[in-house]
Amino acid sequence: MNIEELPIAILKDVEDRSLQIIKHIKDDIVIIGGWAVRAWGKEKHGRYTLDIDGITGQNKLESVKDKLESLGMKGKDSDWGIEFTAKYRPSEKLHAGLDEDAKRFVENLELRIEISPPKMQELATHHYFEFDLEEVVELSVKSHGDMPPFNIRVPSLEPLTANKLGLPADYKNRFDVGILLPLCDMDKLMRIIKKTNDWAELVYRRIPKTIGRTRDESDLAHLLLINANIDLKSFFRALEKLQRELGEHRLVR
């Protein structure tokens, strides 16, 4: 069993528990990853996002640690930042409705938040992407339950999209790019990709994988984007244009 096969009620509950964590530290971090895409894409972001990804400056790090520890989360340092986890415990009612396979899966499920500096180094390579902690906006997110909507701080649209384009082409990142790209100022997006270290090289290499995998009609990102009413032909054309311009950029460097 994988996460996508869990009952919808569990997925919604995990998201709502994650939002409670985000609300506790929202003034100290900038949210990236799936929750940031949710904030930009709203209802179109039709995939569940169970982990929390954030960035913060060194001056905020101790405050974040203290607040997460006060929630009973356990932290550990890593090469890229810090990771906090807490065991997920569903209500008795939710647990009782699970079959045996789901119960075994949920027993090992954790609430997780990963926090890194704004300069994010890709593992095992020299490539990095650096967010500007001043170039952020406040956008609203809402729960599936009774928690009132609240604002979180997320990167501006084009830096967030530029970062996503250079990440590994798994279904989550490809879906997120599909949600974000139609909203972007493409000229601004290209400027950000080109100026950030050699992130352009990663984007150039990963666009063909994004296109190739997402064209597959059985691919999960393909299906999710169709459900979100994303025009896939326009999406692929936009990616191909980025690819051509990045190819020209490589030739003149």
Q: Would you give an account of this structure?
A:
This protein has 253 residues and is an alpha+beta fold. The chain has two domains: 1-155, Beta Polymerase, domain 2, CATH 3.30.460; 157-253, no CATH class. It has eleven helices and nine strands. The strands form three sheets. Strands 1-2-5-4-3 form a five-stranded mixed β-sheet. 35% of the residues are buried. The model has no long low-confidence stretch (mean pLDDT 92).
- CATH class placement of the largest domain: Alpha Beta
Mean pLDDT: 92
What's the helix count?
A: 11
Q: Looking at CATH, which topology of the largest domain would you report?
A: Beta Polymerase, domain 2
Strand element count: 9
Distance between the termini: 47 Å
Taken as a percent bin, the fraction of beta residues is: 15-25%
Helix content: 40-55%
Uncertain segments: none
Quick overview:
With 253 residues, the protein is α+β, with helices and mostly antiparallel strands. It is built from eleven helices and nine strands.
Chart the SSEs and their pairings:
Elements: H1 8-25, E1 30-32, H2 33-41, E2 51-55, H3 58-70, E3 74-77, E4 82-87, H4 92-96, H5 100-107, E5 110-116, E6 119-121, E7 128-130, E8 136-141, E9 150-155, H6 157-165, H7 171-180, H8 186-195, H9 199-215, H10 220-227, H11 232-252
Parallel strand pairs: 2-5
Antiparallel strand pairs: 1-2, 3-4, 4-5, 6-7, 8-9
Helix pairs in contact: 2-7, 6-7, 6-8, 7-10, 9-11
Output the keywords.
253 residues, alpha+beta, Beta Polymerase, domain 2, 2 domains, 5-stranded mixed beta sheet, two-stranded antiparallel sheet, 51% helix
